[in-house]
Amino acid sequence: MKSKSPVIIDLKFDREQVAAALKGAFADREVIDLAHPANKTRDLSGIDYAVVWKPAADLFSRAKDLRAVFSGGAGVDHVMTLPGLPEVPVVRFVDQTLTTRMSEWVVLQCLLHLRQFRAYEAQNRKRIWRELDQPEAREVTVGIMGLGVLGADAASKLKMLGFDVVGWSRRKKAIDGIETFDAAGLDDFLARTDILVGLLPLTAETRGLFNAGLFAKLRRNGALGAPVFVNAGRGGSQVEADILAALDSGVLGGASLDVFEKEPLPLESRLWTHEKVFMTPHAAAASDVRALFAHVGRQIERLENGQALENVVDRQAGY
To answer: D-isomer specific 2-hydroxyacid dehydrogenase NAD-binding domain spans which residues (predicted)?
Structure first.
């Protein structure tokens, strides 16, 4: 019987988490973890699979016989721009654990802005006891840009909480109970939106999309007083100077950011201390490494059984 191809692991994740997740994973095949010094110069020819997140620059020149590349996260822009990426399927990580975590984060941020958490924090520091006017969720429209697995799940959960929810994607999608818009309807979508949620992949079309011109098109007379920007998609899709200017001028009433143009966020950035900003360190939907390896194992099994891989990146679209 032909031995099964090893799996290359090149993940810039927490080493203890990776080590723990590898126990019991890929039980019937060898794992070559490139974080181990013994594997730094190992011959990687003849190996079919690689699981990557910010891998070494020479990975693909060393592993020339790959049949599939698996992204360690939902995003793939870091993979698609790697030097020497072979013409093989690139597979996105789609898993319920990741989807649930992203929806939790999006829902939390929308509720923080709805319930004026920053304003109450400021009152608490000054020992002010005063109830603020409280709009209901049904009075607030959340507009989600990006209606893939993550965006669709977040939309349904926000809808259950009573928010009015609309969605936008480059090509129109149908989601039960959610009004959706396509590229031609962007301005109409923005004019409806009080809380703008970015869950878009990073492509040539989305780079720098969240800028001053776009923020100016959001609804001005909504229940929150001023629109809010929430981004957990990709940092390259936002212009942080424009976000700060919009917050300072009142064009935006608040922001929640999990992704940034440069990560880690530079210490000198005003986003660290801005009174209208909630920040998290690209942690909205951190990959569950055990779930990642289980997902990769399932996809390898499909491929070796003659079935099509799932969640393969469309190279022309970039996601």
So the answer is: 110-284
